[in-house]
Structure formats: structure tokens, C-alpha cells
Amino acid sequence: MRYPMPFPGRILRLAPLVMLSGLTACGMNPFAKDEPASAANTQGVPAATAPAQTSSAMPKPRAAATDYSQPVYKSAPSAPPGPPVKLRANHPDRYTVVRGDTLWDISSRFLEDPWLWPEIWQVNPQINNPHLIYPGDVISLIYVDGRPQLRVERGAPAGLRTERLSPQIRSESLEQAIETIPFDLIAPFISRPSVLEKGEAKKLPYVLSTKGHLIAGTDYDVYARGADFPVGSRYSIIHVGEKIRDPEDGDVLGYVGIYAGEGRVVRSGDPATVYLRDAEREVLEGDRLVQVDARPRMDFIPRAPSQNIDGQIMTVMGGVSLIGQYHIVAINRGQRHGVEPGHVLAIYQAGEKVRDPYKAGVLSGVLGSRVRLPDEPAGELMVFKTYDRMSYALVMEASSEIRVGDSLRNPE
Q1: What pTM does this model have?
Q2: Quick one: which of 55, 72, 186, 317 has the fewest CB in 10 Å?
Q3: Phi, psi of 377 (to 5 degrees)
């Protein structure tokens, strides 16, 4: 049976890119046979840089005991020192934060490279939660020993006048702090993921039974397991599609997620009863459930990784061939490689392979060896969610065409 592609609706171009073929049949395990595919040039995680030799007069440090209860990964080499901070030519000296600002927006007002924010951000120990910025706060640019610094002055809460009163405590909600990147840009992906990380997919709640039907659709009830399922909670139904493999070693890192519809829990229990209020395609037994109102933390700081990262873009959400600003991508680097939310990586367009007909006097356009041209800078992305071996990232800047397979490195 062939299934139609999901209608994009309000997904903001976040439909899956990969062509869907061989969809999992009803009742079959979508995670079976996730063995690595044969792939050339298999690479492991780079070994750590060897420490410098200590003087013979110094006592040798005592080796730490190995904790065998936790996985042990070889750490990547530390990244070289970052470039000097460059201020924008038209930067302000003071800026008052307004509702709707993001940390990336504010950093871009002052810096040529917004990911260098930590280099000039100075924490005021007299302020509660100094790493958080709120609407009404004032960001000031000052110079200390000739070096630029940014400092924050807490402003009055929005809509309140300043009056001379007795000392009071200002209550601040963490939810009111500005976000690093606009949550609206990734919200559709969070609630309707078009890529499922391998480990996450296996842990998600699932449709146990379609109540005797081969498939289910709008106004059907299905039984679900794998969560508490409070009555009234809403879930997106996601069909597990094709495998997504690491382009380096062929290991399965995730799956294409195909949005099937939305359901509401009408009866809790194990299993729970979920009413399908809006189905855009057939719902099958084994489909996964993702809570609609889930919201990841968005208060991370944009910064360069402390270790050298060398990866690739595996896929893009949105069914497009060319990747641009604010597209969400999946990359083949994650926690074991030192990647964290907030890390900014430079995107390099993979160099084209061309034939050289002029070497050694050969003038024919048909003959000659093939030469790969250098990779060229194409933009920057910021990681917002990490897993063991893969991460999700938002393209923040795109200076030229970006495609699946383009390489990722530490920003320069």
C-alpha cells in the first residue's frame, strides 16, 4: 500500500526531506535490523591530545580510578583559541531589551560574530540570575583596559512606573527571560518532529491497538501505552519511516518522522484511550506519540565549542533541496563528541570535484585527473538539542547555498 505524503499544514516547511519508501507495515517492529550498513572511510572519535611532559623533579600525579559504570569515550582535541572580538561598526553603546528580543539578536547588535558573546559578557554578582536577561534590562558597552565588555543593569518590569518607595523584592519568572533563539521557529518541529533520534524513538509512547481495525483515522479511538497519559493531554501521532544513517560509518542514528495526526487522551490507564481528532494519514499500530505541549529549555548561551568538531549535515526538515536561514537540520555529532546546546558551528559548502585537463600538458577537456575544490564558508548554525551521536540545529546565517552533506567545523 502506498501512503500519501503528509499535508504540510502549519509545519513551516518542516515536512521530511527524505523520500518515503517501504513504510513499516501494520504490526511490524520499525526498529528491527538496525545494523550498520557497509560504509567506507569509517572514522572514530579523535583521540585526546597528549599532555605535556612534566619535570622529573615533580612527583607524578596519582592516576584516577576508572568508573566502569559509565561509558568511556575518547575526548576530542581542544579547540584552538578563538579569534579576537570584533564590534559592529554601528554598534550601540546602550540598548534596552524589549519583549520579543532574543540573545542572538542582542549579540548581533554589538558583535560581528554573535557566538563570541561569552568573550565580552561580564556577570554582575549583585544581580540574581545574572546570566538571564529580561525585557526592560539595559545592556551597556564599556571598556576595561582597552577591551570591550557588556554589562547588564536590571530595568523595571514592563508596564510599571519607577517610584520612590520602601525597599521591595522584585519577583522574576524564568519563563519571562528572553530566549536564545525564537522558540516559534522550532516549535512546530518539537511538536511534530520529522526526525526521530534512534534512542528517543524507542522510548516514546506508542499506539498499541487500533481496536480491531487495520488502520485508524479521524474520529477513531486507539489504545496507547508508554506514558501516564493524563486525561485531556494532546499528542502528535508520528509514523516511524526510513532509517537515517551516519554518512561516515553507516550506523543508524535516527528515523524519518511522518506526521499522521493529533489525538487527545479521553481515558487514562494502561492502556489509555486516545481519540484521533485530526488525522492527516492512516494511523497504524506501532506509531509513536509526541506530547504537543513539550518545550525544551531555551536559555543556553551561544558560543563556540571548546573542542574541535568536524561533522556533516545529515538531513533537513522541510522537504527542500537547498537549506537557508532558519531551517532545522540534523547533524552527525552529539554529546559524545562534546556538542552542547548553544554551540555554534560554521557550515562549509562541500568543494565540487572537477576534471583537470591541463596538468602535464593535457589540453583535452575529456582527459585529466579529477580534483576536489576547497570547501567554502556557507553560513552558521546553532545546536538546540543534543543526543549521544546526533543533534538538531537551527541555521542562523546562510551566505550561500547549503545542502545535505555539507561539512561543519568550529567557527573561525
Answers
A1: 0.67
A2: 55
A3: -60, 135
